[in-house]
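Prompt: For my understanding, could you write out one protein's sequence and backbone structure tokens?
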Amino acid sequence: TTPKLCRMAFGMKDLSDKQVAFEVSEICDKNNWIAVVHADGNGLGSIVQKIGTDPKRLKTFSENLDKATTSAAVKAFDDVKNRFKDATVIPIRPIVLGGDDLTVICRADLAVDYTQAFLHYFEEQTKELLSGEIKEVFGANEDGGLTACAGVAFIKSSYPFYYAYELAESLCSAAKNDAKDSPEIKAGKKLPLSCLMFHKVQDSFVEEYKEIAARELTPDKFTSFKYGPYYLKSKEGKWTIDTLKANVQKLEEGKGNAIKS
């Protein structure tokens, strides 16, 4: 039968088995690249500590958090679905969707746009459904929703999923560590900004992102090619996801071909 998770993540009650990717090969295109995306909310621990002694309130909060996360996934799917409207099989396959967690496998070219949309809608939907708890824990000046960080591992379709998922989690952790750059945030008194980190796997080594960064992105102790994470909203000294996409677009234009390498 068609996985219930797919219906939830796509918001499609009439989803048929034929539209669901049961094999990784059905997700990728001719170049065989896919992405494993793992997103995780920020600030949840602080809220649970505050309201966790009230079982009824905690239950309601958990249910609303599930609704917000699922709604964010559906809206993100809606944002990118026109890019594969003629495809027989939907090139996105949810693996985890619940609480403040999302994990999907998707066609590589969809990954950044889908993840950016999910981060945006996660903030929007948690603001709508959880504003009372957010303001109670993070102060009256906090007028937004919960934030989230994400890791995106770009891999060939033949690469073991388990290792790709581990890398996506490691990238998400790296994004969170960068976003928690103040004592207030580390103490759980303020929310970090939403952001994403990505890496394209070019070899068969299996290791955490910090080890990949040291081996592949650090040619000497004075130089680093590591850049990111990329933030949903403006942050001093950092690129936004929109800035990243705009610069990629420049490289894809005719004049950019000469310097793309």
Summary: The radius of gyration is 19 Å. DSSP finds eight helices and six strands in the chain. Residues 34 and 107 are 5 Å apart (CA to CA). The longest strand covers residues 33-41.
